[in-house]
Design a protein that fits this description.
Elements lengths: L8 E7 L3 H12 L5 E4 L8 H4 L31 H14 L6 E2 L6 E5 L4 E5 L4 E9 L21 E4 L13 E5 L5 H8 L5 E5 L6 E2 L8 H6 L5 H21 L1 H18 L3 H6 L12 E2 L3 H5 L4 E4 L3 E5 L2 E4 L4 E3 L2 E4 L14 E2 L6 H4 L18 E3 L12 H21 L2 E6 L1 H15 L3 H4 L21 H7 L8 E5 L10
Parallel strand pairs: 1-2, 1-6, 2-3, 4-17, 6-18, 7-16, 8-9, 8-16, 9-12, 10-11
Antiparallel strand pairs: 4-5, 5-6, 13-14, 14-15, 19-20
Length: about 500
């Protein structure tokens, strides 16, 4: 592609330097697309694994599968890697591929708008204005924390922080602590802080299905084995196949009800108190919410210094937290394990079409995209981990790399066919989403009887992917130019044949 543009005009701007953004940069370099920049809001790369540093933070996908296919790691320390090791891995991959020179740190995007007259995206940060022929949004959905609007919370005189903004300078030893929410983060940090605190009040709005976690330290002999040719690739393929088999249950919930027996057995074995066990027993089908893995969450809740309140939080009154059922607990610190904005991503409020409509306005009735990647009316724009690509049973790397295949092929098509503009046809997008919503109707997310981040405030499933991961890879293998309005370049050429 061309490199004749002004310093802040690029062929491609990537928004976000997490796993998606780093992967996008690497794939662009492999395709000989070098006139790009990665805009990162923070002072370092790493995305969600940079931000989430709470005690016990770890992945719930096996390490061998939670990695780039082109940069597999044979020497993970554990079967399920912790946050620090994953972050080191991601940064190491970025370093080896020279991604650092393309990253512009402390460049949070305030507004990105398509300018039809110029055929460019105009991207504004606090102190810079960029122009790009295409943008790839890699902002993810596990980094903008939800801070609930609870009466009295702002006036609380103690310490308050979200799990994704953990205050490591604040010592919890001997404190009375309240944890609000019992999702994926909370089940990891609660066992870590429980032995330190004087008392722990856990406010649980909805119990979770929790399965045993087959985690273990990987011995040296096993690491040496995975350095042999093809062994790691074979193990990765085996894990992928196993998770795909499990994923059938999301589309046929009756199968997941059989797996619930393991969840019941795990709960019954770990929790002997019948009253506590009743509080922790879900009343919906396993898989309706994210399936969680833990060996130490239930034992932690069974300790004498822990009280589980099966209620959401109603208000904070002075030093007292008050549940929706009227239960009260006096505390020194409140930790919010309240999750992230998934169905209403904040980045959507900062992306605009030529007419000045924001993506959040276009998505007022629910997030929709074509193959989770492109959005009609936003030319030359791509979104990684976009609508209806949540699979719930396999590695996010598989989704990301599938999309990058599609995106890079689209950009190469623009270069090779000298196109200035591509925009997915509205009828194609609408037809695709009708099929998505039709086939979601029988999935566990729609029929399992729970409230989850798969469903937005209107009950619309804008997150789940209704088919197999193999089908996702097929759909995203190549750019299907016939589904798009293609505009040949006139004076402005998208890239060059370099």
């Amino acid at each position: 592609m061309t490199s004749q543009a002004s310093p802040h005009t690029h062929d491609v701007l990537i928004i976000g330097a997490g796993i998606s953004g780093i992967g996008a940069g690497i794939r662009l370099l492999e395709s000989n697309i070098r006139n790009f920049a990665i805009l990162e809001k923070a002072g370092d790369l790493g995305g969600t694994w940079r931000d989430n540093t709470y005690p016990g933070c770890a992945c719930d996908v096996p390490s061998a599968l939670y990695s780039y296919s082109f940069a597999q790691k044979p020497d993970w320390s554990r079967a399920f890697a912790g946050q620090a090791e994953i972050l080191d891995y991601v940064r190491g991959v970025a370093d080896r591929h020279g991604i650092g020179e393309y990253v512009r740190f402390n460049q949070a995007v305030e507004r990105a708008q398509w300018r039809e007259a110029q055929g460019l995206w105009e991207v504004q940060t606090a102190d810079q204005l960029y122009f790009a022929r295409a943008i790839v949004v890699c902002s993810g959905y596990l980094h903008e924390p939800i801070v609930p609007d609870i009466p009295g919370l702002r006036d609380f005189q103690g310490k308050v922080f979200h799990s994704s903004r953990w205050d490591h300078d604040h010592d919890l030893t001997g404190e009375r602590v309240a944890v609000i929410g019992t999702g994926a983060s909370a089940i990891q940090f609660i066992p870590e802080i429980q032995p330190k605190v004087a008392s722990l009040a856990v406010f649980q709005r909805t119990p979770q299905w929790i399965l045993p976690k087959p985690d273990h330290a990987i011995p040296d002999i096993e690491r040496r084995f995975f350095q042999l040719p093809l062994t790691l690739k074979a193990w990765r393929a085996l894990l992928f196949g196993g998770f795909e088999t499990f994923g059938v249950g999301f589309r046929k919930p009756a199968l997941l009800k059989q797996l619930q027996k393991l969840g019941h057995a795990h709960l019954n074995w770990a929790v002997k108190d019948p009253e506590l066990r009743a509080k922790l027993t879900p009343d919906y089908t396993l898989g309706c919410k994210r399936v969680l893995l833990s060996n130490n969450y239930y034992p932690a809740l069974s300790q004498a210094n822990v009280d589980v309140f099966a209620t959401g939080l109603k208000e904070v009154r002075g030093q007292t937290v008050v549940g929706q059922d009227g239960s009260e607990q006096e505390v020194d610190t409140i930790i919010l394990g309240t999750g992230f904005h998934v169905t209403e991503p904040p980045i959507a409020e900062r992306i605009f079409n030529d007419a000045g409509q924001s993506l959040s306005q276009l998505w007022a009735d629910g997030m929709q995209a074509y193959r989770g990647t492109t959005i009609s009316g936003l030319p030359n724009a791509f979104m990684v981990l976009g609508p209806n690509l949540g699979i719930g049973h396999n590695s996010a790397f598989i989704v990301i790399e599938s999309q990058l295949n599609y995106i890079v092929d689209a950009l190469a098509t623009m270069r090779d066919r000298q196109l200035s503009r591509i925009d997915v046809r509205r009828d194609v997008q609408e037809s695709y989403n009708r099929k998505v919503q039709r086939d979601l109707q029988g999935t566990v997310w729609n029929t399992g009887g729970c409230s989850s981040y798969y469903l937005d405030k209107n009950g619309f499933n804008s997150v789940g992917f209704p088919w197999s991961t193999l089908e996702m890879q097929r759909l995203l293998k190549r750019f299907d130019s016939g589904s798009y309005q293609l505009t040949p370049a006139s004076d402005t050429v998208f890239g060059g044949r370099s």
